[in-house]
Write a structure and sequence with these properties.
Layout (H helix, E strand, L loop, with lengths): L10 E4 L6 H31 L6 H27 L5 E4 H34 L4 H4 L2 H27 L8 E2 L6 H5 L7 H35 L5 H26 L9 H22 L2 H16 L1
Parallel strand pairs: 1-3
Antiparallel strand pairs: 1-2
Function: Putative odorant or sperm cell receptor.
Main location: membrane
Family: Belongs to the G-protein coupled receptor 1 family.
């Protein structure tokens, strides 16, 4: 395989989400509304969890990190896409393209692992309640947080390392509104079968295994909850249901994009749009609306610092 020294492409032309001006305007307004309304809500979740003494349990610690990762993820693609809507020719440099791709998989991989950690937390809390305070102590929580950041970094750096070895000598048009593995690889002027296979194993297979593992673990947890007669049964079921909703809306598009051969389909851009722009802003909000403790703490915070 040739090395990156043979790369002559210095920039990529993004074809965008659509060529229709009316649809572009509609998407621009939609994304802007999401940013103005929902993104501050994610930061409010983080502030609420950090400031309220009643939200110190590991569950809320991980929820705060989920909000932080989702907010960070939403800054990778959407801001540049909003700016690109204002220009007829959408250009991104080779270096910026690789940087965007790196952070997309770094944050995305970390978020997927965070959902695994949250499933582990719920399993210990519901199936091993007597050991919960011992297993999920503050040191263990920070160690798990460090592990998921490290896992996201390793996952992403593998993707970048494989792409940097590919030669790009033209064409340089990316049929998307951001840089991602399937579109970038297709522009390489060499046989990419082995690289595509490695990418599918690194992204697609791991995503699918995590998804199936999470669904299986929550099935066990819900089964144990139904067998119990504790007072917190309804609350535990509500929490698990919320986690499953988040898992479905996050892993579903990722599985569609990364577990198949890198061939363009008509719905690819729509799925990518929801996966990279809409869903990251909604995940913590979905959880918050179904968690009474967080909602109550949020209203107390707003009443204290805004209303008064």
């Amino acid at each position: 395989m040739e090395t990156e020294n043979s790369t002559v492409v210095k920039e990529f032309i993004l074809l965008g989400l659509t060529q229709s001006q009316n649809i572009q305007l509609l998407v621009f307004v939609l994304v802007l509304i999401f940013y103005v309304i929902i993104l501050p809500g994610n930061f409010l979740i983080i502030l609420t969890i950090r400031s309220d003494p009643g939200l110190t349990a590991p569950l809320y610690f991980f929820l705060g990190n989920l909000a932080f990762l989702d907010a960070s993820y939403s800054f990778i693609v959407a801001p540049r896409m909003l700016v690109d809507f204002l220009f007829e020719k959408k250009i991104i440099s080779y270096r910026d393209c690789i940087t965007q791709l790196f952070f997309l998989h770094f944050i995305g991989g970390g978020e997927g692992l965070l959902l695994v950690v949250m499933a582990f937390d719920r399993y210990i809390a519901i199936c091993r309640p007597l050991h919960y305070s011992t297993v999920m102590n503050p040191r263990a929580c920070y160690a798990l947080l460090l592990a998921l950041w490290l896992g996201g970094f390793i996952h992403s750096i593998i993707q970048v390392a494989l792409i940097l070895r590919l030669p790009f000598c033209g064409p340089n048009q990316l049929d998307n509104f951001f840089c991602d593995v399937p579109q970038v690889i297709k522009l390489a002027c060499t046989d990419t079968f082995v690289v595509e296979l490695l990418m599918v194993f690194n992204s697609g297979l791991l995503t699918l295994l995590c998804f199936l593992g999470l669904l299986s673990s929550y099935a066990v947890i819900i089964y144990r909850v139904h067998q119990s007669s504790s007072e917190g049964k309804n609350k535990a079921l509500s929490t698990c249901t919320t986690h499953i909703i988040i898992i479905l809306i996050m892993f579903g598009p990722a599985i569609f994009i990364y577990t198949r051969p890198f061939r363009a389909l008509p719905v690819d851009k729509v799925v990518s749009f929801f996966h990279t722009v809409i869903i990251p802003l909604l995940n913590p909000v979905i959880y918050t609306f179904r968690n009474q403790e967080v909602k109550s703490a949020m209203w107390r915070l707003l009443n204290q610092y805004v209303v008064c």
